[in-house]
Specification:
twelve-stranded mixed sheet
Length: 336
Protein backbone atom coordinates (compact mmCIF):
# COMPACT_ATOMS: atom_id res chain seq x y z
CA UNK A 1 0.00 0.00 0.00
CA UNK A 2 1.15 3.51 -0.80
CA UNK A 3 0.48 6.72 1.11
CA UNK A 4 0.83 10.42 0.36
CA UNK A 5 0.34 11.62 3.94
CA UNK A 6 3.96 11.30 5.04
CA UNK A 7 5.06 14.70 3.69
CA UNK A 8 2.67 16.98 5.55
CA UNK A 9 3.70 19.62 8.09
CA UNK A 10 3.57 18.77 11.82
CA UNK A 11 0.44 20.91 12.19
CA UNK A 12 -1.45 18.45 9.97
CA UNK A 13 -0.37 15.36 11.91
CA UNK A 14 -2.68 14.34 14.75
CA UNK A 15 -1.87 12.73 18.09
CA UNK A 16 -2.16 9.28 16.51
CA UNK A 17 0.35 9.92 13.73
CA UNK A 18 -2.19 10.42 10.95
CA UNK A 19 -1.13 12.99 8.36
CA UNK A 20 -3.87 14.97 6.61
CA UNK A 21 -3.34 15.81 2.94
CA UNK A 22 -7.00 15.92 1.86
CA UNK A 23 -9.19 18.99 2.38
CA UNK A 24 -12.92 19.16 1.70
CA UNK A 25 -14.53 22.60 1.45
CA UNK A 26 -18.27 23.20 1.41
CA UNK A 27 -19.13 26.17 -0.81
CA UNK A 28 -22.79 26.61 0.15
CA UNK A 29 -25.49 25.28 2.45
CA UNK A 30 -28.13 25.62 -0.28
CA UNK A 31 -29.29 22.79 -2.51
CA UNK A 32 -31.73 22.42 -5.40
CA UNK A 33 -32.78 18.94 -4.20
CA UNK A 34 -34.36 17.81 -0.93
CA UNK A 35 -32.94 14.33 -0.30
CA UNK A 36 -34.22 12.99 3.02
CA UNK A 37 -30.91 11.59 4.29
CA UNK A 38 -29.22 14.97 3.82
CA UNK A 39 -31.89 17.66 4.22
CA UNK A 40 -34.20 17.56 7.30
CA UNK A 41 -37.92 17.64 6.48
CA UNK A 42 -38.34 21.10 7.96
CA UNK A 43 -35.22 22.43 6.22
CA UNK A 44 -32.27 24.17 7.85
CA UNK A 45 -31.50 27.68 9.00
CA UNK A 46 -29.14 29.04 6.36
CA UNK A 47 -26.08 31.02 7.35
CA UNK A 48 -26.24 34.65 6.18
CA UNK A 49 -24.40 35.22 2.89
CA UNK A 50 -21.89 37.65 4.42
CA UNK A 51 -20.94 34.97 6.96
CA UNK A 52 -19.97 32.44 4.28
CA UNK A 53 -16.43 32.18 2.99
CA UNK A 54 -15.73 34.34 -0.05
CA UNK A 55 -13.73 33.14 -3.05
CA UNK A 56 -10.74 35.12 -1.77
CA UNK A 57 -11.00 33.50 1.66
CA UNK A 58 -11.31 30.03 0.14
CA UNK A 59 -8.23 30.72 -1.94
CA UNK A 60 -6.34 31.83 1.14
CA UNK A 61 -7.17 28.81 3.30
CA UNK A 62 -6.31 26.45 0.42
CA UNK A 63 -2.95 28.19 0.08
CA UNK A 64 -2.30 27.76 3.82
CA UNK A 65 -3.26 24.08 3.77
CA UNK A 66 -1.34 23.37 0.55
CA UNK A 67 1.82 24.93 1.95
CA UNK A 68 1.45 22.51 4.88
CA UNK A 69 1.14 19.47 2.61
CA UNK A 70 -2.49 19.21 1.42
CA UNK A 71 -2.47 18.10 -2.22
CA UNK A 72 -6.12 17.05 -2.69
CA UNK A 73 -9.03 19.48 -2.46
CA UNK A 74 -12.69 18.59 -2.93
CA UNK A 75 -15.40 21.24 -3.27
CA UNK A 76 -18.78 20.22 -1.90
CA UNK A 77 -22.06 21.68 -0.64
CA UNK A 78 -25.03 21.83 -0.31
CA UNK A 79 -24.88 21.95 -4.06
CA UNK A 80 -21.66 23.65 -5.25
CA UNK A 81 -23.05 24.48 -8.70
CA UNK A 82 -25.37 26.97 -6.97
CA UNK A 83 -22.28 29.16 -6.48
CA UNK A 84 -22.08 31.47 -9.49
CA UNK A 85 -18.34 31.78 -8.92
CA UNK A 86 -17.68 28.02 -8.92
CA UNK A 87 -15.39 28.21 -11.96
CA UNK A 88 -13.40 30.99 -10.30
CA UNK A 89 -13.08 28.97 -7.08
CA UNK A 90 -11.93 25.91 -9.06
CA UNK A 91 -9.36 28.05 -10.88
CA UNK A 92 -8.00 29.41 -7.60
CA UNK A 93 -7.81 25.97 -6.00
CA UNK A 94 -6.29 24.13 -8.97
CA UNK A 95 -3.73 26.91 -9.48
CA UNK A 96 -2.49 26.72 -5.88
CA UNK A 97 1.09 25.39 -5.72
CA UNK A 98 1.06 21.88 -4.28
CA UNK A 99 -2.52 21.00 -5.21
CA UNK A 100 -2.50 18.06 -7.63
CA UNK A 101 -6.19 17.09 -7.52
CA UNK A 102 -9.19 19.40 -7.62
CA UNK A 103 -12.57 17.71 -7.47
CA UNK A 104 -16.25 18.53 -6.99
CA UNK A 105 -19.11 16.57 -5.44
CA UNK A 106 -22.44 17.55 -7.00
CA UNK A 107 -25.96 16.26 -7.56
CA UNK A 108 -25.42 16.86 -11.28
CA UNK A 109 -28.76 18.55 -11.98
CA UNK A 110 -27.25 21.73 -13.45
CA UNK A 111 -23.74 20.42 -14.01
CA UNK A 112 -23.61 19.49 -17.71
CA UNK A 113 -23.64 23.05 -19.06
CA UNK A 114 -20.71 24.02 -16.81
CA UNK A 115 -18.47 21.00 -17.30
CA UNK A 116 -16.43 22.45 -20.17
CA UNK A 117 -15.62 25.60 -18.21
CA UNK A 118 -14.90 23.68 -15.01
CA UNK A 119 -12.49 21.38 -16.81
CA UNK A 120 -10.81 24.37 -18.48
CA UNK A 121 -10.31 25.93 -15.04
CA UNK A 122 -8.57 22.86 -13.64
CA UNK A 123 -11.23 20.46 -12.36
CA UNK A 124 -9.76 16.95 -12.54
CA UNK A 125 -12.24 14.70 -10.73
CA UNK A 126 -15.97 14.54 -10.29
CA UNK A 127 -18.39 12.80 -7.92
CA UNK A 128 -22.09 12.81 -8.85
CA UNK A 129 -24.67 11.86 -6.23
CA UNK A 130 -27.43 9.65 -7.64
CA UNK A 131 -29.51 7.30 -5.49
CA UNK A 132 -31.88 5.82 -8.05
CA UNK A 133 -32.06 5.01 -11.74
CA UNK A 134 -35.87 5.24 -11.75
CA UNK A 135 -37.12 8.75 -12.71
CA UNK A 136 -40.33 8.55 -10.65
CA UNK A 137 -38.42 7.33 -7.61
CA UNK A 138 -35.89 10.14 -8.10
CA UNK A 139 -38.70 12.68 -7.75
CA UNK A 140 -39.97 10.91 -4.63
CA UNK A 141 -36.55 10.73 -2.99
CA UNK A 142 -35.34 14.22 -3.92
CA UNK A 143 -38.71 15.97 -4.01
CA UNK A 144 -37.60 17.56 -7.29
CA UNK A 145 -37.31 16.75 -11.02
CA UNK A 146 -34.03 16.40 -12.89
CA UNK A 147 -33.16 12.71 -13.19
CA UNK A 148 -32.43 12.92 -16.93
CA UNK A 149 -30.14 15.91 -16.40
CA UNK A 150 -28.09 14.03 -13.80
CA UNK A 151 -27.53 11.12 -16.19
CA UNK A 152 -26.64 13.57 -18.97
CA UNK A 153 -24.03 15.15 -16.68
CA UNK A 154 -22.46 11.76 -15.96
CA UNK A 155 -22.33 10.93 -19.67
CA UNK A 156 -20.77 14.28 -20.58
CA UNK A 157 -18.17 13.98 -17.83
CA UNK A 158 -17.15 10.61 -19.26
CA UNK A 159 -16.95 12.10 -22.75
CA UNK A 160 -14.75 14.97 -21.58
CA UNK A 161 -12.26 12.53 -20.09
CA UNK A 162 -12.02 13.58 -16.46
CA UNK A 163 -9.41 11.60 -14.50
CA UNK A 164 -12.19 10.13 -12.38
CA UNK A 165 -15.99 10.08 -12.59
CA UNK A 166 -17.73 8.57 -9.58
CA UNK A 167 -21.42 8.00 -8.88
CA UNK A 168 -22.28 8.11 -5.17
CA UNK A 169 -25.31 6.05 -4.13
CA UNK A 170 -26.56 6.10 -0.52
CA UNK A 171 -28.29 2.73 -0.11
CA UNK A 172 -31.48 2.68 1.97
CA UNK A 173 -33.55 -0.41 2.62
CA UNK A 174 -37.00 -0.25 1.10
CA UNK A 175 -36.10 2.70 -1.11
CA UNK A 176 -33.30 1.84 -3.50
CA UNK A 177 -31.62 -1.36 -2.30
CA UNK A 178 -33.49 -3.20 -5.06
CA UNK A 179 -31.37 -1.28 -7.61
CA UNK A 180 -27.92 -2.52 -6.57
CA UNK A 181 -27.50 -4.67 -9.67
CA UNK A 182 -28.80 -1.93 -11.95
CA UNK A 183 -26.13 0.42 -10.66
CA UNK A 184 -23.45 -2.23 -11.13
CA UNK A 185 -24.64 -2.64 -14.72
CA UNK A 186 -23.77 1.03 -15.33
CA UNK A 187 -20.09 0.14 -14.99
CA UNK A 188 -20.21 -2.38 -17.83
CA UNK A 189 -19.70 0.11 -20.65
CA UNK A 190 -18.98 3.37 -18.83
CA UNK A 191 -15.62 4.22 -17.19
CA UNK A 192 -17.27 5.20 -13.92
CA UNK A 193 -16.86 4.11 -10.33
CA UNK A 194 -20.18 3.44 -8.59
CA UNK A 195 -19.79 3.87 -4.83
CA UNK A 196 -22.39 2.30 -2.55
CA UNK A 197 -22.55 4.21 0.74
CA UNK A 198 -23.92 2.87 4.01
CA UNK A 199 -26.72 5.10 5.31
CA UNK A 200 -25.28 7.36 8.03
CA UNK A 201 -26.99 9.26 10.88
CA UNK A 202 -27.07 13.07 10.82
CA UNK A 203 -29.40 15.60 12.40
CA UNK A 204 -32.92 15.37 11.00
CA UNK A 205 -32.48 12.41 8.64
CA UNK A 206 -34.48 9.85 10.67
CA UNK A 207 -31.67 7.26 10.55
CA UNK A 208 -32.35 3.76 11.85
CA UNK A 209 -30.62 0.42 11.64
CA UNK A 210 -33.65 -0.95 9.79
CA UNK A 211 -32.99 1.46 6.91
CA UNK A 212 -29.27 0.71 6.71
CA UNK A 213 -28.00 -1.94 4.30
CA UNK A 214 -24.56 -3.14 5.38
CA UNK A 215 -21.50 -3.48 3.20
CA UNK A 216 -21.48 -7.24 3.80
CA UNK A 217 -25.06 -7.57 2.57
CA UNK A 218 -24.54 -5.33 -0.46
CA UNK A 219 -21.40 -7.16 -1.52
CA UNK A 220 -23.03 -10.58 -1.04
CA UNK A 221 -26.02 -9.61 -3.19
CA UNK A 222 -23.78 -8.31 -5.97
CA UNK A 223 -21.46 -11.31 -5.89
CA UNK A 224 -24.44 -13.66 -6.06
CA UNK A 225 -25.23 -12.14 -9.45
CA UNK A 226 -21.76 -11.29 -10.77
CA UNK A 227 -19.42 -13.70 -9.03
CA UNK A 228 -16.49 -12.77 -6.80
CA UNK A 229 -15.38 -9.15 -6.91
CA UNK A 230 -11.63 -8.44 -7.14
CA UNK A 231 -10.33 -6.10 -4.44
CA UNK A 232 -8.05 -3.25 -5.50
CA UNK A 233 -4.82 -2.64 -3.55
CA UNK A 234 -5.97 0.61 -1.94
CA UNK A 235 -3.73 3.05 -0.07
CA UNK A 236 -4.10 3.09 3.73
CA UNK A 237 -6.02 6.38 3.72
CA UNK A 238 -8.59 5.28 1.10
CA UNK A 239 -12.11 5.50 2.54
CA UNK A 240 -13.75 3.20 0.01
CA UNK A 241 -13.27 -0.52 -0.48
CA UNK A 242 -12.71 -0.70 -4.25
CA UNK A 243 -13.39 -3.65 -6.54
CA UNK A 244 -13.21 -4.49 -10.23
CA UNK A 245 -15.47 -6.77 -12.25
CA UNK A 246 -14.28 -8.85 -15.24
CA UNK A 247 -15.23 -7.25 -18.55
CA UNK A 248 -16.39 -3.98 -17.00
CA UNK A 249 -14.91 -0.62 -18.01
CA UNK A 250 -15.84 0.80 -14.62
CA UNK A 251 -15.65 -0.41 -11.04
CA UNK A 252 -17.66 -0.57 -7.81
CA UNK A 253 -16.83 0.53 -4.29
CA UNK A 254 -18.31 0.46 -0.81
CA UNK A 255 -18.07 3.18 1.84
CA UNK A 256 -18.50 1.36 5.13
CA UNK A 257 -18.60 4.11 7.76
CA UNK A 258 -21.13 2.28 9.93
CA UNK A 259 -20.03 -1.36 9.90
CA UNK A 260 -16.33 -1.24 9.07
CA UNK A 261 -14.89 2.20 9.80
CA UNK A 262 -11.69 3.48 8.23
CA UNK A 263 -10.66 5.92 10.96
CA UNK A 264 -7.19 4.44 11.34
CA UNK A 265 -6.06 5.84 8.00
CA UNK A 266 -8.16 9.02 7.95
CA UNK A 267 -6.42 11.85 6.09
CA UNK A 268 -9.38 14.24 5.73
CA UNK A 269 -10.21 17.63 7.12
CA UNK A 270 -13.36 19.64 6.40
CA UNK A 271 -14.13 23.32 6.15
CA UNK A 272 -17.81 24.14 6.13
CA UNK A 273 -19.41 26.95 4.16
CA UNK A 274 -19.38 29.23 7.21
CA UNK A 275 -15.62 28.74 7.60
CA UNK A 276 -15.70 26.32 10.52
CA UNK A 277 -13.01 23.62 10.48
CA UNK A 278 -14.26 20.13 11.33
CA UNK A 279 -11.58 17.49 11.84
CA UNK A 280 -14.03 14.55 11.81
CA UNK A 281 -17.24 14.17 9.83
CA UNK A 282 -18.99 12.71 12.88
CA UNK A 283 -17.38 14.94 15.50
CA UNK A 284 -19.18 18.02 16.80
CA UNK A 285 -16.05 19.99 17.65
CA UNK A 286 -15.48 22.99 15.35
CA UNK A 287 -13.22 26.05 15.14
CA UNK A 288 -13.80 29.11 12.95
CA UNK A 289 -11.11 29.90 10.38
CA UNK A 290 -13.37 32.63 8.99
CA UNK A 291 -13.31 34.53 12.27
CA UNK A 292 -9.54 34.12 12.51
CA UNK A 293 -9.04 35.52 9.01
CA UNK A 294 -11.46 38.40 9.50
CA UNK A 295 -9.87 39.36 12.80
CA UNK A 296 -6.53 39.91 11.06
CA UNK A 297 -4.75 36.64 11.87
CA UNK A 298 -1.63 35.90 9.83
CA UNK A 299 -1.23 32.70 7.82
CA UNK A 300 1.07 31.37 10.54
CA UNK A 301 -1.55 32.19 13.17
CA UNK A 302 -4.22 30.35 11.20
CA UNK A 303 -1.96 27.33 10.73
CA UNK A 304 -1.50 27.21 14.51
CA UNK A 305 -5.29 27.24 14.98
CA UNK A 306 -5.55 24.40 12.46
CA UNK A 307 -2.77 22.46 14.19
CA UNK A 308 -4.42 22.74 17.58
CA UNK A 309 -7.70 21.41 16.16
CA UNK A 310 -5.96 18.52 14.39
CA UNK A 311 -4.20 17.53 17.62
CA UNK A 312 -7.63 17.25 19.31
CA UNK A 313 -8.89 14.76 16.71
CA UNK A 314 -9.97 11.48 18.27
CA UNK A 315 -8.65 8.07 17.30
CA UNK A 316 -12.03 7.02 15.90
CA UNK A 317 -15.61 8.18 15.71
CA UNK A 318 -18.28 6.58 17.89
CA UNK A 319 -20.30 3.53 16.88
CA UNK A 320 -23.42 3.90 14.77
CA UNK A 321 -25.86 3.79 17.69
CA UNK A 322 -23.89 6.40 19.63
CA UNK A 323 -23.68 8.58 16.52
CA UNK A 324 -27.44 8.41 16.06
CA UNK A 325 -27.91 9.77 19.59
CA UNK A 326 -25.35 12.59 19.57
CA UNK A 327 -25.76 16.15 18.31
CA UNK A 328 -24.20 16.99 14.96
CA UNK A 329 -25.07 19.22 12.06
CA UNK A 330 -27.36 18.09 9.28
CA UNK A 331 -25.37 16.72 6.33
CA UNK A 332 -26.47 19.65 4.17
CA UNK A 333 -24.68 22.00 6.61
CA UNK A 334 -21.50 19.92 6.89
CA UNK A 335 -20.85 19.26 3.23
CA UNK A 336 -20.70 15.94 1.40
Amino acid sequence: MTSRTANVAPELVDAFGRGHNYLRISLTEKCNLRCGYCMPEDGVDLTAKDELLTADEIGRVVKIFAAAGVDKVRLTGGEPTLRKDLEDVVRRVSGTPGVRETSVTTNGVTLAKRLDALRANGLTRLNVSLDTLVPAKFEFMTRRKGHDRVLASVDKACELGFQSVKVNCVVMRGQNDDELLDFVALTKDKPINVRFIEYMPFDGNKWSTKKMVSYAEMRARIEEAYGALTRVDDPREEVAKNFTLPGHKGSVSFITSMTNSFCGGCNRLRIMADGNLKVCLFGNSEVSLRDAMRSGASDDDILRVIGAAVKRKKAAHAGMHELAAQDNRAMIKIGG
